[in-house]
Amino acid sequence: MPCLTRRRLAAIFPAAFGAAALATPARAATRAEIDAEVQAAMVRLRSMPQAAPLFAQARSVLIFPRIIQGGFIVGGQYGEGAAMQGGRTVGYYSIAGASFGLLAGAQASGLAMFFMTDEAMAALMAAEGWEIGTGPSVVVLDRGVQANVTATTLREPVYAITFNQQGLMAALALNGTKISRLEPR
Q1: Per-residue pLDDT averaged across 103-109, rounded?
Q2: Model confidence, pTM
Q3: How far apart (Å, rounded) are the C-alpha atoms in residues 74 and 183?
Q4: Nearest to 83 by CA among 65, 101, 71
Q5: What letters, b where the CB count within 10 A reaches 16 and e where it falls short, cover 67-102?
Q6: Does residue 25 lie in a domain region?
Q7: How far is Cα 43 from Cα 28, in angstroms, rounded to an integer?
Q8: Residue 139 and residue 120: Cα distance in Å, rounded?
Q9: How many domains is the chain built from?
Q10: Domain limits for position 158
Q11: DSSP state letter for 51
């Protein structure tokens, strides 16, 4: 196993911080840009048969059409989206997170969070920033589980599914991720 010298550390950490910086936006999107991306994502999600039971029972849906994630040992992710209730936008949100560990690569993907209870949505709207893992439990459905979801099996307050994954990282991590209210232009 190679020894970590100052020279190797200097080579590793700038690359790690550079990759994490890729996950932060140069500028925030406008309301119109977010709305357009959310509507396109909504069309994509509604075409997924396994999402039908979620849409049928959800009180509201928080959609992040594009979350950029990247890193090498140290990584980050960032995305912007909107909460939809009854076909209208009820708020704009950002999702951000950092991670450290055995990771390398970059990817973009979408995330939809289905709030099955009014209490779960109220917890999101009342929080200054909601860190996933504190508050209502979030069940992340992978593709295999999504195929078996029916209206009678939905018992948790929040379900999350990813869509449109592109890139070289294995998955979108939600641990340590914070969702915050956003006021786009």
Answers
A1: 86
A2: 0.77
A3: 28
A4: 65
A5: bbbbbbbbbbbbbbbbbbbeeeeebbbbbbbebeee
A6: yes
A7: 23
A8: 13
A9: 1
A10: 6-182
A11: G
Mean pLDDT value across residues 62-75? 90
Residue 1 lies inside a defined structural domain of this protein: no
Query: Which tokens sit at 66?
Result: 């594009």
| 40 assigned to some structural domain | yes
Cβ neighbors of 26 (< 8 A, separation 6 or more) are none
- The whole-number average pLDDT for the span 110-134 is 84
Beta-strand (E) ranges in 116-184? Answer: 129-131, 138-140, 158-167, 177-182
Give percent above pLDDT 70 in the chain: 71
Whether residue 80 lies inside any domain: the answer is yes
pLDDT tens profile 157-180 = 899 998 988 887 655 556 678 999
Whether residue 55 contacts residue 61, with contact meaning beta carbons closer than 8 Å, is answered with: yes
CB of 58 within 8 A of CB of 114? yes
Rounded Cα distance, 130 and 80, in Å? 14
Give the count of alpha carbons within 13 A of 171, CB side only: 10
Tell me if residue 38 falls in helix, strand or coil: helix
Half-sphere exposure of 162 (CA within 13 A, CB side): 19
